[in-house]
């Protein structure tokens, strides 16, 4: 697990509703989307790789988020593009949940794109 200095607070886990996305805007970083699938949280870039759409505003079905502009889709767990016109994967970020707060490691080198990065919401924070 990365040390605390490498982690950035994003949102309280309770503020991310099941099967929904929440947009997080941070200074000096592109917008992020925090998704909750069941009791797991995932963090990806919020901007669609095909166009300037906010994926946190997209519909979620079967672990995929549909772009609200062109109906392309991405696997939330891996960032993989799953429906055209999207072909480039989303960047996913390693995360941890501590005391009901979601933190991400934003300085990851990008080699984690296409790999799962999630954390289970502790039962006390549900």
Automatic annotation (TrEMBL):
It comes from the Bacteria. Residues 8-104 form the Rieske domain. One of its GO terms (molecular function) is metal ion binding. Keywords: 2Fe-2S, Iron, Iron-sulfur, Metal-binding. The keyword Mitochondrion does not apply. InterPro entries: Rieske_2Fe-2S, Rieske_2Fe-2S_sf. SUPFAM superfamilies: ISP domain (SSF50022). Transmembrane segments: none annotated. The keyword Kinase does not apply. Pfam families: Rieske (PF00355). This is Non-heme iron oxygenase ferredoxin subunit.
């Amino acid at each position: 697990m990365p040390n605390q200095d490498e982690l950035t607070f994003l949102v309280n886990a309770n503020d991310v509703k099941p099967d929904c996305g929440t947009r997080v805007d941070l200074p000096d970083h592109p917008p992020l989307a925090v998704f909750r699938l069941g009791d797991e949280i995932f963090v990806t870039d919020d901007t669609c790789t095909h166009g300037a759409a906010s994926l946190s505003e997209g519909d979620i079905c079967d672990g995929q988020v549909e772009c609200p502009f062109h109906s392309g889709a991405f696997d939330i767990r891996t960032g993989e593009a799953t429906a055209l016109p999207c072909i480039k994967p989303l960047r996913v970020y390693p995360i941890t949940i501590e005391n009901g707060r979601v933190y991400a490691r934003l300085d990851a080198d990008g080699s984690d794109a296409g790999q799962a990065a999630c954390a289970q919401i502790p039962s006390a924070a549900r």
